[in-house]
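Dear support,

Our group has been running a series of protein-ligand predictions, and this particular one with adenosine-5'-triphosphate is the one our PI (initials K.S.) wants archived with full inputs and outputs. We had some confusion internally about which version of the output was final, so please treat the block below as the authoritative record. The input we submitted was:
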Amino acid sequence: MKNTGTPGPLLAAHDLVKTHGATPALRGASLSLGPGEILAVTGASGSGKSTLLHCMAGIVRPDEGSVTYDRQRLDRLPEKRLSELRRTGFGVVFQFGQLIPELTALDNVALPLLLAGTSRPRAHEQARDWLERFGAHDLAALRPGQMSGGQAQRTALARALITGPKVVFADEPTGALDSLAAEQVMTALARTAREAGTAVLLVTHDARTAAYADREVSLLDGVVVAEDPALEVTP
Ligand SMILES: Nc1ncnc2c1ncn2[C@@H]1O[C@H](COP(=O)(O)OP(=O)(O)OP(=O)(O)O)[C@@H](O)[C@H]1O
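Confirmed final output from the archive:
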């Protein structure tokens, strides 16, 4: 069909197949993410959620199928361009924030800008601003070992968003948190992503975490089973 002029998805996976050794993780998974959309991917343990996120973030190449980001075939990009795109267009947060233990919260958040050549005073100024957006400005001088799980995740989210990515990939960002901390992390993530117009691909087991998304799809044995209206019409 001809292009109708409607903007397409920002990121789309079509018929992804990925096998780890003898274990099939994805068996034809398709999913699309619109600009600024918060999308939750749920499903049982082992259903392929993390593998789908890794393929869509350009961390893992699928065996078959395509990943299109901003009209480019991510699965075909040479490694150098892929890592450049991951650095500039994407932010990533995992279950355990993976902050650098030796650095303060301020330096952890400033790090992507420092690595990109921003001056230290400017990077710190922006890092303070992003910590504040996540209600974590009082953590600036703390090292990860001095923080609670929720504080560490809010710091990790500030670090993921400081470069102004188009997409944040969050793999079980509340998986290690109690329910109050999970609520604070998700409230801050949803509000901040909406303010910044950042799309979020959120992988979670937890229905309360998924409830912060605009839309939810489900994976079953490596296939997206819940409806994804941008891709198909289920009778
Ligand atoms: N690096 C790997 N090596 C071997 N098998 C893997 C690897 N990564 C994932 N798998 C397997 O692929 C399947 C899908 O795993 P994946 O982690 O994507 O699922 P998941 O839905 O995210 O699970 P969980 O919720 O437990 O994290 C599982 O059977 C898993 O054991």
